[in-house]
């Protein structure tokens, strides 16, 4: 039996979702990290990807101004750091310091990659779309690196249930979900 739900529960019905850490930086000043679950590949040739960022997030303004971002795919090993980056704001906090995550030199953008994440996708913003209280930033992929342990010829290995999926929990312990 199906029941009608509050429309506001829509995004919960589209979960679990892959969870990533997006890094961004202005030319001057400290870089920031935001946890995101609303991401989507949007083109194969050229490779493009979209992220949806709340207009009130600090990262929203940084990405808008700098025109670039990096998608870093985390694992279970840094689950609590992912939680911190998704519940605190870079407006007040240096999240690299707070989490001890390591900023790694990017190849084609200014925003750093995160060393502890086995996949780093560097993107330049080519457009944006207003979507209610979020902005969808569309990024052209300009560099892609992945730990050789996590893929075979570009096809990801199931890395032992370590990839994080958001399942809309309200506290750290019940937020993530893992698949084999
Ligand atoms: C698991 C998880 C997923 C999230 N996904 C998104 C998302 O897709 N888009 C978004 O705008 N905020 C998302 N958030 C909320 C932001 O990460 C959060 O508001 C963060 O504190 C904003 O940081 P900032 O102010 O430094 O940009 C998510 C939070 C968590 C914990």
Can you offer a commentary on this structure?
- There is one protein chain.
- The protein has helices spanning 10-13, 58-66, 79-85, 95-99; strands at residues 17-18, 20-24, 32-36, 39-43, 48-54, 68-73, 103-104, 113-114, 119-131, 134-146, 151-152, 155-156, 164-166, 176-178.
- The protein has one domain (7-169): Roll (Pnp Oxidase, Chain A).
- The radius of gyration is 16 Å and the shape is globular.
- The two termini are 30 Å apart.
- It is mainly beta and 180 residues long.
- Helices cover 14% and strands 39% of the residues.
- The strands form four sheets. It has a seven-stranded antiparallel beta sheet with strand order 3-2-6-9-10-5-4, sandwiched between helices. It has a three-stranded antiparallel beta sheet with strand order 1-13-14, with no helix packed on it. It has a two-stranded antiparallel sheet with strand order 7-8.
- It contains four helices and 14 strands.
- The structure holds flavin mononucleotide.
- The site of flavin mononucleotide (FMN) has 22 residues, from strand 3, strand 5 and helix 2.
- The secondary-structure element order is HEEEEEHEHHEEEEEEEE
Determine and state the CATH class. Mainly Beta
**Number of strand segments:** 14
Q: What is the share of helical residues?
A: 10-25%
Number of domain modules: 1
CATH-assigned homologous superfamily: Electron Transport, Fmn-binding Protein, Chain A
Total helical segments: 4
